[in-house]
Amino acid sequence: MSKYNLIAPCHFGLEAVLKKEVTDLGYEIVRVEDGRVIFSGDEGAIARANVFLRTAERVLLEVGEFKARTYDELFEGTKALPWENFLPEDARFWVKKASTVKSKLFSPSDIQSIMKKAMVDRMKMKYHKERFEEDGDDYPVRVFLLKDVVTVALDTTGDSLHKRGYRKMQGLAPIAENLASALIQLTPWHPDRILVDPFCGSGTIPIEAAMIAAHIAPGMDREFTAENWSGIAPRKTWYAAIDEAQSLVNTDIETDIQGYDVDPEMIKIAKANAERAGVEKLIHFQARPVKDLSHPKKYGFIITNPPYGERLEEKSALPQIYNDFGNACSRMDTWSVYMISSYEDTERDFGKKAMKNRKIYNGMIKTYYYMFPGPKPPRRRPESGR
Predict the structure, then answer these.
(1) 83 three-class SS
(2) Which residues of the chain form beta strands (DSSP E)?
(3) Is 241 within the bounds of a domain?
């Protein structure tokens, strides 16, 4: 059974959440870097990480690492890697993406071209062929250059892990599913506590919360590139991961998860998405403006992604939206509020300074996750025996 280094990229600022997820799956952390967690595991880990990780963007299988300050060094370093241990003779292989930071080699297209030639040269040496048809399964390669250190990896995932498969329809500014899951995990919310999203849009935050509550693995109902890599991760490893995931699902639980949005059409979309995710029974969706936000119970959680004003037509409305939100929350004084926003006047217009905020990059947008934890509920007294 082979051991591999696996690389799980994530949103910048969420490395600790992903690290905990990987540890909870039972794998050893090799190191944590900005925007990624590296861990070790066997072929079963490739399948389980793809199926179970909620906050990763993808799972990469490290082929090797070397230093390169010139294109000659890049060519020779790539050629020296044991590609024949990963790629079958009929593999369709190419450098799908190259990113470079603080390195002398800075042209992604040149890096991709030179590395492809080096990979072909290595394959020629090992398979004693001059030409490869490349009519087999896909083996996309991703390359990272950081301070002249080249990390080369195979992409086992394919479409990003945030694509769970349930969100066929969405609003104009949806939050990624893996980011939504991370925001929930950054709070002390537990499935037996109330959760409300007053800006739910297409329902991503409530749906991700319901999937966590019901132990629905995010990758249960989708396909992955490495499912076809019989020499690395045989089909049985994928079957085992799916069987494990299915055995954990429990939708017969009681939850109080609610999603509100001012737009009735978005509520229809959210309900359809929840149904595809298999959690429609666990969430109550309702069209309601944020100024009417209320709840009869105490000690609940608000986790939300309010408008940022990224679209020009929204900007003038933001002060009133945040002011209405803050006024509603002030009436729910035992509740905890968590919101992600890039709006620079969030705290001023909300009317309260966050106890803590966390910088998170939502794609290329720098956002802050504002945390307003409320009081803890009183402990329940044990019932006295009679």
Answers:
(1) helix
(2) 4-9, 28-33, 36-41, 60-67, 92-101, 138-146, 149-155, 195-197, 257-261, 283-287, 301-304, 336-341, 356-362, 365-372
(3) yes
Q: How confident is the model at residue 168 (pLDDT cuts 50, 70, 90)?
A: confident
> What are 360-370's pLDDT values in tens digits?
998 788 999 99
pLDDT at residue 373, as a whole number: 97
The CA R_g of the chain, rounded to the nearest whole Å, is 23
d(CA 98, CA 152): 9
**In a shared domain, residues 53 and 76:** no
Residues 34 and 97 in one domain: no
**What sign does the dihedral 263-268-274-277 (CA atoms) show?**
negative
Q: Does the pLDDT value for residue 10 go beyond 50?
A: yes
As a dihedral over the C-alpha atoms of residue 83, residue 87, residue 89, residue 94, rounded to 10 degrees, the angle is -90
Which of 228, 188, 185 lies closest to 209, judged by CA? 185
Question: Looking at the 3D structure of the chain, how many domains does it have?
Answer: 3
Residue with tokens 């509020």: 337
Q: In this structure, are 318 and 358 located in the same domain?
A: yes
* Four-residue CA torsion sign, 262, 164, 360, 107: negative
Structure tokens at 203: 């329902």
CATH of the domain at 1: 3.30.70
Helix (H) or strand (E) holding 242: helix 235-248
pLDDT for the residue 17: 98
**Which tokens go with 115?**
């590395």
Angle at 256 between CA 251 and CA 262, to 5 degrees: 115
Q: What region, left, alpha or beta, does residue 147 occupy, with left being phi > 0 and alpha being psi -120 to 50 degrees?
A: left
CB 197 within 8 A of CB 258: yes
**Which CATH number is 134's domain given?**
3.30.2130.30
Beta strands of 226-323 (E only): which ranges? Answer: 257-261, 283-287, 301-304
How far is the C-alpha of 310 from the C-alpha of 290, rounded, in Å?
19
pLDDT at 47 over 90: yes
Structure confidence at residue 171 as a pLDDT band (50, 70, 90): low
Q: What are all long-range contacts of 234-241, with beta carbons under 8 Å and residues at least 24 apart?
A: 234/43, 237/43, 237/44, 237/46, 237/47, 238/47, 240/44, 240/47, 241/44, 241/47, 241/48, 241/50, 241/51, 241/52
pTM summary value: 0.94
Domain that holds residue 27: 1-59
CB 159 within 8 A of CB 145: no
